[in-house]
Amino acid sequence: MKINKLYKLFTLMCLTLFCFWNVATAQTKDAKFLVSVVDEQGSPLEGVNVFAPKGVKVTTDSSGKFQIVIPEEETIVIQKDGYESKLLSITDITNLNFNLVLEKSQFLASEDDEIKMGVTTKDRRDIVGSVSTINTNDRLVYDNTQFVRDYITGLTVGVRGSSNIRGIGNALFVIDGVFGRDPNILNMEEVEQITVLKDANAVALYGSQGRNGVIIINTKRGKINRNEVNVNIRSGIRTPLALPNYLDAATFMELRNEAFSNDGLDLNVVGFSQDQIQNTRNGLNPIEYPDVDLYDFIQPFVSTHNVISEFSGGGDKSQYYVNVGWLYNEDWLNINEDINAGSNRFNVRGNIDFKVNDWITSSIDGVAIFSNSKSSRANLLSAAPTFIPFDYAPFLPVSALDIDNNPDLATLLAGANVFDGNLLGTAQQLGVNAPIARSIAGGFQNNVFRVTQFNNTINLDLSKITKGLSAKTYLSFDFLDSYTTSISNQYRAYAPTWQDGKIIALQDFGEDRRDLSENVSSNGFTSRIGMYALVNYEKTFAGNNSLNTTLLGYYNSEKRDGVIQTDRDSHIGFQMTYDFQKKIFVDFSGAYVNSLKLPNGNKGAFSPTFGLGYILSEESFLKDSDFVNYLKLKASGGIIKSDVGINGYYLYDENYSDGANFTWADGVYSNRRQNISQGANPDLGFEQRIDLNLGFESYLMNSLWIEANYFRTELDKQLTILADQYPSYYNTFRPFNNFNANLYTGFELGLNFNKTFNDFSIGIGANVLYSQTEASKRSETNEFEYQNRQGRELSTIYGLVNDGFYSAADFDVNGDLINGLPEPQFGEVKPGDLKYIDQNGDDIIDNDDSIDIGQSASPWSYGVNLNLKYKRFNLFVLGTGQTGGLGNKLTGFSNYFSPNGTDKYSEVVLGRWTPQTANTATFPRLTSGDNQNNFRTSSFWLYDTSFFEISRAQLTYEFSENLCKKIGMEDFSLNFQGYNLFEVAKNRDIRQLNVGGNPQARTYTLGVRMSF
Question: Do the Cβ atoms of 835 and 803 come closer than 8 Å?
């Protein structure tokens, strides 16, 4: 009830605000003006856009003139790329004497170069730290993906995947100034700018939470006198990239017989008969001799639809932006037509900016999202890896029942639910828990996810106190909750008895009874409140010297359902930037952070950072260069104190728990022991990020942008329990200590080239990240040096080194290993089992022989993009890749690559070891028991995860301006887009495979974009 009231209140607030920004202002009369726009040299400027109230727009002609009618007391906006925009009233225009001078912006200091860094805004030119930015205003026409993480992957410099900056870890997302919001709730149409803050100097204002870097996302806002309506409609299909390939029932039974034989078992007792195998293979009666693969129920393609509408505009007093969207994805499994399985997502965003008076402006943002995913109560995809194909037929045709000779079947059938002429089948060992029967007759479940977000900003211009002084307050509230509604029908399933190809008896399980009530269960909630206040002071003195200072106070509180401790973060941040002639920049930024996770006396710490920037191209020897248009050198360093890596509270204190009872005095008295599991450390402190960044950014030949950075980051004083400081018998008394350290070194490079030749333009972008990690300090007591983690890559995989398969020659006549071969300690081995190398020479194969066999993280990641435009056609292609990492077939594939014992067989076992295939085998011998030797981490199971893929491509056609005007549109375009189109990889079949869940998909969509 409380949640519904919140949503009603939110809706009422949105309607009220909508009315607010549409309040009409009475006009007295209009004024007509003819104005000439010139540059600083007095030359006329053609193509200057002039935006007037009510969406009126004019453009200067070749003589730089424009004529416009302006209502009294209204304003106009004068704008041209590369020049400083102006906001003018009637009085301003009258005083111009019909001549308006537009000043050219410094390079990287125009409106388009403003970078909204979450809590502050700076020109690209003024930034000292390592920062990369994507502006989406023009890109969305030719690169129309709707998922924010897809936009980050491959397009942003220094990011591995969609959130890991420089391999250090998941970054903090800041959306519209709110720390910690989830980017998955956004659609790209809402987004105006994505900015990545990478080094310590850039993230200092974000305190403890910014340790791993910060990704800032700013949504769109209304602009003065620019009334716009944009509609984006996309529809398409998704097809599976790959599906698991399990063996058919007959082959499965043959190979299971082989496994029984390998184990020395009697096939007459435990095996499958040749009649059963042959009858299953010929398929003459697939009901009595079933061969079922649940993946056959996956649809060959499913539909996807997306509609997004945007409304924005306003005058100089208030501006608004509204985004309304709907996204639908059909489910891969839809065998119950009554359910209409699939997901729907509805979102509404409203961003409002308004002027309170001459020195106060404010903004109010609200977001509401409602999504639901409807499905049957049984997940066939999760059941598929264990569903044995010959166990039972899921559908029993009524026509297969021998009713004439078995009247009991007629009685049973009279009261049974029949589905398309079939009864629901099951096996005796499953009873009513047959997954297909539950999918069809068991009802449905609907998982619902709701989001409400609200934030308010108040900006104060305090220049009346002193010029350059301003302040800002920010308040945000988020509430996320999830619940499941379900109808849990009861149903009957039947296990048949066969005779002469007919069903002569049915054993029924369960009963047919519809659920007459809807069940509701909560999946939890998260509520968050955040606030900060900042004061900013800008001052220019002695002509060429400028100072920009910011002081920030921040607080955030997050409560999660079922978690006793509320997470709280707070800090005081500051930034002071000095520049000389906008050429030399010195930045001193830092934060004083507070932590609830640390003991009294250590709860606060100071994080200082320092940065230098030097625009070398401003020097006389480069200033007029035709080759080097811009060159900036940067260096920064600092220490970030953080508790992000401290996973828990009260880790500095002793942990006690009740133990077993003990008695004394011949059992007359008793008491309970107190167990301790953690010792105390009152000196526990913050972890530290110690950072160094050296880089440059440059623009060459008016076409090539380059940015590059070398980085060295050490995460020091990480919490661990010291293994080399306490004897083993002191185990439960050991406290946590600040000791471990990780080192991250590497470089990043970003290139963007753009050139236009008459009707043809080309854009090429590329970025490369190399990040090598090292466990630089560890407390270890391993017996053998090769098992130490210190000095090795953080994602190092430890395992046994495979030495091929045991052969018959490795065993004597009694089946024992011959002399000279080390004895494995993981159970009995036979010919065809994996053989491992004895690393320590003790003639025993055990865990002491596990060594470094590779790393799972790819040190190299990269992205390339190509944008070709000819007249009104545009082709965009994005490719991404990585190299240097290994994967493990034993994890994440539900035993698909490592079926053991009674597990279901996939196609990989066709390469099994037999005496005949000893030289070509790719899989160990089959066994019906649990083999502890073969299925453990070793080099045998590793595979190269390197790849290059065409992540997406889009062909766009933009209709001519004349046609758009005829049909009443500003812009109109069609696009055809594809996702996951092509991949080059040595192990593509493994990389593209999902087992036990939804398949990876290739998507094709046709889209229409319209602007009014």
Answer: yes
Task: For strands 669-678 and 214-219, give the pairing.
Answer: unpaired
The confidence score (pLDDT) of residue 57 equals 87
Residues 6+ apart with CB under 8 A from 728: none
Is residue 876 a contact partner of residue 906, using CB atoms and an 8 Å limit? no
Query: Exposure pattern of 804-834 as b/e (b: 16+ CB <10 Å)?
Result: ebbeeebbeeeeeeeeebbebebeebbbbbb
pTM over the 0.85 mark: yes
Distance of CA 574 to the CA centre of its chain: 30
If you count them, how many residues does the chain have? Answer: 1012
pLDDT per residue as tens digits for the range 470-485: 999 999 999 999 999 9
Confidence grade of residue 516 (pLDDT, cut at 50, 70, 90): confident
The pLDDT of residue 933 is above 70: yes
Q: What is the DSSP string of 51-102?
A: E-GGG-EEE--TTSEEEEEEETT-EEEEE-TTB--EEEEHHHHHHTTTEEEP
Residue 29 has a pLDDT of: 64
Q: What's the farthest any 2 CA atoms get from each other in the chain?
A: 111
Amino acid residing at 912: R
Report the candidate in 798, 771, 789, 937 with the shortest Cα–Cα distance to residue 857.
Answer: 771
Ranking 20-34, 101-115, 660-674 by mean pLDDT, the lowest is 20-34
Q: Are 294 and 387 in contact, with CB atoms under 8 Å apart?
A: yes
| DSSP conformation letters of 615-674 | EGGGSHHHHT-SSEEEEEEEEEEEEEEE-TT--SS-TTS-EEEEEEEEEETTTTEEEEEE
Scored b (16 or more CB within 10 A) or e, 551-574 reads ebebebebbeeeeeeebebbbbbb
pLDDT at 97: 66
Residue 89: how many other CB atoms lie within 10 Å: 15
Using alpha carbons, select from 855, 813, 805, 848 the residue that is nearest to residue 829: 805
Cβ-defined contacts of 909-918 (< 8 Å, 24+): 909/247, 909/255, 910/247, 912/255, 912/258, 912/832, 913/805, 913/831, 913/832, 914/258, 914/832, 915/808, 915/831, 918/805, 918/807, 918/831, 918/832
CA distances from 887 to 937, 982, 987, 994 (A): 11, 21, 10, 14
At 943, list the tokens: 């595979």
**Residue showing tokens 């998955």:** 184
What distance lies between CA 2 and its chain's CA centroid? 31
Q: Identify the H or E element spanning 12.
A: helix 2-21
